[in-house]
């Protein structure tokens, strides 16, 4: 799929970005190469992500942001219960990271639901999520709230209220 300057996209671990430019750049005195210059949205510090234009493996990690119709359909499906808790901490971290970076929208919202249910279970036992699982939850929520916000032309903080209104879920986003 060809992307153009100004397109809003999702890029693997960088989340929702806008294609700021497509230009030839020379890194480390190498021959200039064409890159997609991505500007992550909803970040406080200024940063850019450079994706080689002709590198199929990296370009394949660029996906269009959900359409308005897709975003609404995703919200209407909530909650999505498609994951199982993984007891091994290292395996869980690797799996959660892979879902956040490479997973479908349904996989990511399923992960959010899973971690929230686990947090509820722990709370009943007087315990809390560990820092690793809390970080995964924050990353997954940010990823989905940002994408839904762009799709529906709203601020990410408003997504939480919208999901609550449409589904009754208070702890989803």
What's a concise summary of this model?
This protein is α+β, with helices and mostly antiparallel strands and 173 residues long. Helices cover 47% and strands 17% of the residues. The chain has helices at 56-59, 68-77, 89-102, 105-124, 131-151, 156-167; strands at residues 8-11, 15-25, 33-40, 49-52, 62-64.
Architecture overview:
- With 173 residues, the protein is an alpha+beta fold.
- It folds into 2 domains: 8-64, Thrombin, subunit H, CATH 2.40.10; 68-167, Methane Monooxygenase Hydroxylase, Chain G, domain 1, CATH 1.20.58.1290.
- 47% of the residues lie in helices and 17% in strands.
- It is built from 6 helices and 5 strands, in the order ββββαβααααα.
- Strands 4-3-2-1-5 form a 5-stranded antiparallel β-sheet.
Give me the secondary-structure topology.
Blueprint: E1 8-11, E2 15-25, E3 33-40, E4 49-52, H1 56-59, E5 62-64, H2 68-77, H3 89-102, H4 105-124, H5 131-151, H6 156-167
Antiparallel strand pairs: 1-2, 1-5, 2-3, 3-4
Helix pairs in contact: 3-5, 4-5, 5-6
Q: Describe the largest sheet.
A: 5 strands, antiparallel
Instruction: Enumerate how many helices there are, as a single number.
Output: 6
What is the CATH C-level name of the largest domain?
Mainly Alpha
Strand fraction: 15-25%
First-residue to last-residue Cα separation? 30 Å
Number of domains: 2
Class from helix and strand fractions: alpha+beta
Shape: globular
CATH domain fold name of the largest domain: Methane Monooxygenase Hydroxylase, Chain G, domain 1
Query: How confident overall, as mean pLDDT?
Result: 93
Uncertain residue segments: none
What's the CATH superfamily of the largest domain, by name?
CarD-like, C-terminal domain
Strands side by side in the biggest sheet = 4-3-2-1-5
- Proper CATH architecture of the largest domain: Up-down Bundle
């Amino acid at each position: 799929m060809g992307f153009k300057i100004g397109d809003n996209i999702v890029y693997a671990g960088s989340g929702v970005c806008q294609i700021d430019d497509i230009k030839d750049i020379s890194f480390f005195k190498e021959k200039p190469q064409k890159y997609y210059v991505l500007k992550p949205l909803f970040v406080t510090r200024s940063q850019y992500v450079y994706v080689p234009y002709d590198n199929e493996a990296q370009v394949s990690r660029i996906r269009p942001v959900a359409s308005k119709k897709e975003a609404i359909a995703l919200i209407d499906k909530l909650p999505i219960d498609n994951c199982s808790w993984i007891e091994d901490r290292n395996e869980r971290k690797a799996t959660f990271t892979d879902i956040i970076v490479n997973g479908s929208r349904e996989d990511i919202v399923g992960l959010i639901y899973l971690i929230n249910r686990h947090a509820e279970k722990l709370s009943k036992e007087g315990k809390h999520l560990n820092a690793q699982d809390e970080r995964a939850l924050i990353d997954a929520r940010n990823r989905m709230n940002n994408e839904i916000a762009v799709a529906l032309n709203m601020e990410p903080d408003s997504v939480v209220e919208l999901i609550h209104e449409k589904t009754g879920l208070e702890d989803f986003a």
